[in-house]
Amino acid sequence: MSEKGLTNISLKKINKSKVYQYIYRKKKTSKQQIVQELQMGLSTVSQNLNLLEQEGLIEKNGFFESTGGRKANALQIVSDFKISIGIGILKGMFHITAVDLYGNAFYTDTIPLPYSNTPDYYKQVTDAVRTIHGDSIHLKVELIDKFETYYRDMSRMYRDRSLLPVWKITVDDPDHSCYYIHPETATVRYVNSTARWKYWMYTALHRLRIQGLNSSPTLRKSVLWVLLLGGTVCSLSGVVLGVRYIERKCRKKTRR
After folding, report:
1. CA dihedral 216, 219, 221, 224 (to 10 degrees)
2. Is a pLDDT exceeding 60 seen at residue 80?
3. If I label 218, which of 48, 57, 82, 197 is the partner at 20 to 30 A Cα–Cα?
4. Which neighbouring-strand residues pair with 88?
């Protein structure tokens, strides 16, 4: 693909993101307001609005008052396109709350249920999660006895506390939600698409918290030292080459 093609694709993504972010901030707006505020062409805005609506990210909700011509459609984001769910497990009950993209809680419930490390208890927790996601969403519940990429060994932070086995609830939703519930402590870890991106962009690449290396601290530290030394050598080489380049330039000027 040519450099020009890559630039055009990037520009389209940027414009699409700008239109969506503007609608998100305004909460309700019109096509003409977007054109004026973002200083984009009408055809560009219309194309991006059509794409966002096809993807289910925005929707039309009524009309604005007429200013002499045809009434303008009121545009807004689909606030529950993605949601976040929080579960708090206590001794005699558990709380469950769901918030939309604006952080508004659209579902909250407290279920009186004494905690017990039994399949029946986790089934009731799963049923509560299913209530939010809907009956059509597939949930998979399993008890895992080994660490995974997004559920890694954190025994240094939780000393004298076993982190395995753990109940894993996988939700087949657009955000690829996953819950890890520890049977002894009732600690809940929630993972979604955003958390996975953050993991790979920082934790995995910067700290090498990768599944194969987590199980062997010595190997992980060895790889880290090799990479750090390699980066140091490259940096020093750049400094040396830079100094030599400046020296050559100075000699040429002196000769002249």
Report:
1. -130
2. yes
3. 197
4. 95
Read off the DSSP letter of residue 176: -
Distance, CA of 147 to CA of 213 (rounded, Å): 12
Residue 198 CA neighbour count, 13 Å, CB half: 6
Cis-peptide, bond into residue 114, ω within 30° of zero: no
Beta strands (DSSP E) in the chain are 58-63, 73-77, 84-89, 93-99, 105-112, 139-144, 166-171, 178-181, 188-191
DSSP three-state, residue 56: coil
115-124 pLDDT tens trace: 888 888 888 8
Give me 218's structure tokens.
Answer: 């010595």
Distance in angstroms (rounded) separating the CA atoms of residues 127 and 137: 11
Task: Give which of 115, 105, 100, 30 is closest to 65, Cα–Cα.
Answer: 30
Measured CA to CA, the distance from residue 130 to residue 139 in angstroms comes to 7
Contact 145, 164 (CB under 8 A): yes
SS3 of the chain: helix, strand, coil, percent, to 5: 45, 20, 35
Handedness of CA 22, 26, 28, 30 (dihedral sign): negative
Of 163, 155, 156, 194, the residue nearest 181 (C-alpha): 163
- pTM of the full structure: 0.61
Report the 10 Å Cβ neighbour count for 53.
14
